[in-house]
Amino acid sequence: MSYGTVESLRKIPLFEQLSDEDLDEIAQHLIERRYPRNATVMEEGLPGDYMYVIREGRVKVTKLSEDGREKILEMLGEGAFVGEMALLDQRPRSATVKTLSPARLLALSRGDFLSLLRRNADLALHVIQELTRRLRETDDQASSLSFLRVKDRTKGLLRRMADEPPDGGLQRMTPSLTHQQIADMIGTSRETVTRVVKELKQDGWLEQAGKQYLVPNEA
């Protein structure tokens, strides 16, 4: 199914450096899929034949720990992509992806994805850069779990997830987060996160707007 216009595809970071000709071709291969909140898009351990670009909505990427608990690896929003690893190495899915809100995803099959990578160096480079970023973030998380206190890990997570202020303001805002989601991502309990969030507010470092958090726009 064809998707949208060249202009709309170019707003997606994965495709922004591609030529109009390449975007026209990609549009012929993308399949739009809609999911309700809490729907499973991909499941850890199962084979994968498609990667997905998030057109609208948010998803969480999770793995099960040895004791059966869900560990949140990442939360992704519009423009991000998931599922490319299983297409590149043809191994089972390494994580589960579930929607945090109603979502529209653009699916690209393994054959089309690999063909585009072989023919387009800019697209291949963007995928490599994103995989490198995720690897560095995983390394940072592993290091913080080993060496930093829960309070510092919470601050580090909120900084990473907060968007840059569009007007160069003094504060950045995170997406909606629950204490349980924060706990899952930094490897602690919800009760501990609740105490830490209260302390960060008392310190004047953190403000809250509903389920979103405001953190300093530090250099």
CATH class of the largest domain: Mainly Beta
- Which bin fits the share of residues in helices? 40-55%
> Alpha-carbon distance between the termini?
44 Å
**CATH homology superfamily of the largest domain:** Jelly Rolls
How many strand segments? 11
Instruction: Specify Rg, calculated over alpha carbons.
Output: 19 Å
Order of helices and strands: HHEEEEEEHEEHHHEHHEE
The main pleated sheet reads as:
4 strands, antiparallel
**Nearest-integer average pLDDT:** 83
Description:
The termini are far apart. This protein has helices at residues 6-10, 20-29, 84-89, 110-119, 121-147, 150-161, 179-186, 190-202, and strands at residues 31-35, 40-42, 50-56, 59-64, 70-76, 81-82, 96-99, 103-109, 171-173, 207-209, 212-216. The strands form 3 sheets. The chain has a 4-stranded antiparallel beta sheet. 22% of the residues are buried. Helices cover 42% and strands 24% of the residues. A hairpin with a 2-residue loop joins strand 10 and strand 11 (212-216). With 219 residues, it is α+β, with helices and mostly antiparallel strands. It has 8 helices and 11 strands. Helix 4 (110-119) crosses helix 5 and helix 7 packs across helix 8 (190-202). The chain folds into 2 domains: 6-145, Jelly Rolls, CATH 2.60.120.10; 149-216, Arc Repressor Mutant, subunit A, CATH 1.10.10. The model has no long low-confidence stretch (mean pLDDT 83).
